[in-house]
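Researcher: Next entry in the queue.
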Amino acid sequence: MSPRIPSEAQYLTRRHRSAAGSRSFRLYLPASHPDRPKGLILMLHGCNQTPEDFATGTHMNALAEKHGLALAYPAQTKRQNRGACWNWFKPRHQMRGTGEPAILAALTRKLMREFGLGRDDVFVAGLSAGGAMATILADVYPDVFAAAGVHSGLARGAAWDTLSAMSAMHSGGAPTGIAAIAVTRAGPVRRIIFQGADDRSVNPLNAGFIVAAEMGEDVAPTRVGKRSVRGRDYYRSFYADPKGAVLIELWMIEGSGHAWSGGRAAGSYTDTKGPDASAQMVRFFLDKPP
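Model: Structure for this entry, 290 residues:
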């Protein structure tokens, strides 16, 4: 099912080609800023999803319209992966300059040039396998992305083949054998992480491994708050740098499984009860540190 869009907005079908490979993608351009959007979010769907399904479930197009943002939804197909998953668990797809990260970074750079956008206005978000790939892009292309939204994802280096991927998803996977990527002059990539505490597909321990990979194994949150929405409790942990700037927000959602929090029922892998991951990701992306 394709999401509804305003009559003046554009929802285009394009194909990106680069030396690393090609992918088709849907591009949402808001009616409010079709030629000069204020920012760009690369949206990475999960396994057995399509860009249209992901757009519908996350209702991200409506938020993009509200804030004047462009959205790019690349499509992974069953030709590249049997389950249409991004290949986050294969070594060549966890590094800079090769495989799917190189394809996605090249696509993003092309759109940045087209719309005159700088790194500070470019973000990536994903669910499950797409969340794992969003983490990889944040790690290996910090010069392209200013922030990442990771929903039900895993850390880069949590797996290196199909068997280790299943183990990491089931039991949690700490990064192993992955070379660190030097932070560029652009600064670290901020991250907002959502994880269902009752997720049976991706062990909730993986959210902690993403935090530890970025902040260190012994890191403790700067502060933690507990709230509820529509009868559902969630814990929100903040991790800040020595100057007090928040680098990571971790949302652990009680009673939620492997689904996009606050999503729409018309899309797959959604939990309508909330909190609204899409709205919070956009808020985090646009709330830039001083």
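Model: The chain has a mean pLDDT of 94.
Researcher: Noted, moving on.
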